[in-house]
Amino acid sequence: MSISYVIVDDDAVCRRMLQNIIEQCKLGEVAGTAGDGAEGIGIILELKPDIVLIDLLMPGQDGIETIAQLKSRGYHGKFIMISQIENKEMVGQAYQRGIEFFIHKPINRLEVEAVLSKVNEQRKYELHILEIKQSLAKFDAVETAVRREPTVREVVKPILMDLGIIGETGSKDVISLLEYVTEHRQSGDFPPLKELYESAARASKQSKSDVEKESKAVEQRIRRTVMAALNHLASIGLTDYSNPKFEYYAPLYFDFQDIRMRMKVMDEGQNPEKGKVNIKKFLQVLYIEVLEKMKS
């Protein structure tokens, strides 16, 4: 499943750099480019790309206004904003219009690859879900269709998407140990983390020594993934404190003081990768939410 892009930027050098990165990193194909918002609207509505990379500030019609017009005319793809501006009010407006990620100017290859890989993964998952829904719709009229309880994987993936970690390596480990807990939920209380890490490790390793080694790797991957979720929510809270995802997930999955501290660290430009996080609380809340969604 190849992801298609349209790049809208008045800087021709920037357009070429982004196109080269997309093609060289095999992140999809660039279906078209445009030098301003008005031109971009026609190209995007015609080509219907999966992802639009669009400059925030352009002469004539800026990126925010272009996005508003595209949405009003039925375009449902994803947007990534390109800009060197740091004005929080304008960034907040962009998030309100549906922007999920920013790529900062001057263009940095590693940042572009990281951002596009994450959005690419989310878009592929959304398209996969759409295909499933379209396939299921064909069977709505069949009276013999068998209703079943959704799987843990089907329920948890949209939550991981909202938390901004569906593309993280540790998300697979999170799903694996949630499947384990759900399967053994009759046994009582939430299992110790060590038991959960071992359950995820046993899925790919056989010998005792391999399981022990992989358990430590699982723990580190999950820790990084939970930290990524914390950073994602703190980033949203910094630009839009009333964002529905921030209001719902931040106090539910994390302690309030941890969220505030993370926002302070990011606002002061410190390293957001360091710090402590309550992994057990995160997994327990996620497990409870998955159970509730499976029942409903």
TrEMBL record:
What protein name does the entry list? DNA-binding domain-containing protein
Annotated GO MF terms? DNA binding
**Positions carrying 4-aspartylphosphate:** D55
- Report the source organism: Cohnella suwonensis
Kindly state which keywords UniProt assigns to this record, in alphabetical order: DNA-binding, Phosphoprotein
The residues covered by the Response regulatory domain are 4-120
InterPro entries linked to this entry: CheY-like_superfamily, Sig_transdc_resp-reg_receiver, ST_Response_Regulator, YcbB
> Which SUPFAM superfamilies does the entry mention?
CheY-like
Name the lineage.
Bacteria, Bacillati, Bacillota, Bacilli, Bacillales
Q: Does Mitochondrion show up as a keyword for this record?
A: no
